[in-house]
Amino acid sequence: MTDRYGDSLSRRSLLRAGGAALLAPAFASPALSQGQSEVIRIGHLTPRTGFLGPLGEFAVQAAQLAVEEINAAGGIAGRKVELLSEDSVNPQTASAKAERMVQRDRVACLVGEINSASALAISQVAQREKILFINTGANSDALRGSDCKRFMFHVESQNTMMVRACGRALLDRGLIKGRKVYALTADYAFGHDLLKQAKKYFAANDATLVGEDLIPTELTDFSPFLLKLRQAKPDLVICNLAGAQITNFLKQYSEFGLPFPVAGFGFDTALAWGAGPGNFLGTWPVIWHHQIDSPSAKKFVAAFKAKYKKPPENQGWGDYTAMKIVAQSMNELKSTESIKVVEHLESGAKFDIAKVREGYFRPWDHELMQEMFAITALPADQVKNPFDIFTSTGPLPGPGESLEVLATTRDENACTFPA
């Protein structure tokens, strides 16, 4: 999600100093050879601290597991894969670390991030250096639209997909049409974009936004906002917070004993586990969860449990999936050249992504087309263990629908790749 500041001596400054002849071989990306012994490095950036730190830990664990499995299966064209994983911290640090990984560590690609502002910073480095970056956790629609990059792809869903997936479940429960909604939103790029997409959905489905507050990401005491909710008496509380904010909010909401239904348009299952049975409330969208009934999902869950003694959650799924997509693509191409991988992903290549249906990247905005889910908290007396604390819809879109129906269209979120 965020981190920056690396070497002060850039590749470009060396080139300007006349070192082009020396640098060219070091930065070339040749086709793979079975005889090459050097490792293939993949740069992995994700938040390890702050309000998104708990999600970042799952990301790191899943990425490490994926690399172990890739190496056990022969690596990439017989070469071992080495994961360079660092705390991204913030956009400035993320940018600097990404640049350092590319210029000093000579990584073959960049993977990770959760924070949308940090993902944008990393994508700018990736585009400038012409190196592949797969975003595994940042949701902002703008990253697929006004801020899109040719060398950036998205395993994570865009905010609109989250809103529409959860919105279907809320419509079915009668909580949207003609209802009064109060929204609490994280005060940073992700939250601002999510609220923007939520307002579009409310307007299209006859819901009235009767109150909204932007919540600082460092806030831990929600009592002033809970008092405002008590006074407003909405039909639905929409929690557009992020990371540990959601866990803290749900715990305090339960303590206040407010009667209003709760939902949100951005979520990670680790946050439900953090809140715990009885505190976890409402209906939420997820891109993946550990109860999905597919052979590859069950295999991933079993391997993660065996290594870490707990099930994986959806952020872990994103980083694991991205690593597997990178390895599969490079093996099929017999090359680590980013532009060749970009062209391969744009070609409509399909991947087993531990869901019922295979996924593919749209060529015009590089969003992964895939199934989504909406989960709803189980009553505390129905919970049998700390992890299986929700029920889930079936895959969204349904079996007879295009995978693209939840995503934005070109007209809604135009993307023009920079040169």
Task: Note the topology.
Elements lengths: L10 H6 L3 H8 L12 E7 L6 H20 L8 E7 L3 H13 L5 E4 L3 H14 L3 E3 L16 E3 L4 H14 L7 E7 L2 H16 L3 E8 L7 H10 L3 E5 L3 H13 L5 E2 L5 H7 L7 E4 L8 H14 L5 H20 L4 H9 L3 E2 L7 E3 L6 E2 L3 E5 L12 E3 L27
Helix pairs in contact: 3-12, 4-5, 6-7, 9-10, 12-13
Largest sheet: 5 strands, parallel
What's the Cα radius of gyration?
21 Å
State the order of secondary-structure elements, H for helix, E for strand: HHEHEHEHEEHEHEHEHEHEHHHEEEEE
Structural class by sheet pairing and helices: alpha/beta
Strands, total number: 15
Approximately what portion of the residues adopt beta-strand conformation?
A: 15-25%
Shape: globular
Low-confidence stretches: 1-30, 33-37
Helix content: 25-40%
- Termini gap: 25 Å
Q: Strand order, biggest sheet?
A: 2-1-3-4-5
In round numbers, the mean pLDDT is: 91
Helix segment tally: 13
Verbal overview:
This protein is of the alpha/beta class. Helices cover 39% and strands 16% of the residues. It has 13 helices and 15 strands. The protein has helices at 11-16, 20-27, 53-72, 91-103, 116-129, 159-172, 189-204, 223-232, 244-256, 269-275, 295-308, 314-333, 338-346; strands spanning 40-46, 81-87, 109-112, 133-135, 152-154, 180-186, 208-215, 236-240, 262-263, 283-286, 350-351, 359-361, 368-369, 373-377, 390-392. The strands form four sheets. A five-stranded parallel β-sheet has the order 2-1-3-4-5, sandwiched between helices. Strands 7-6-8-9 form a four-stranded parallel β-sheet, sandwiched between helices. A three-stranded antiparallel β-sheet has the order 10-14-15, covered by helices on one side. Strand 12 (359-361) and strand 13 (368-369) form a beta hairpin. Helix 6 (159-172) crosses helix 7 (189-204) and helix 9 runs parallel beside helix 10 (269-275). The longest helix has 20 residues, at 53-72. It is globular, with a radius of gyration of 21 Å. The two termini are 25 Å apart. The relative contact order is 0.14.
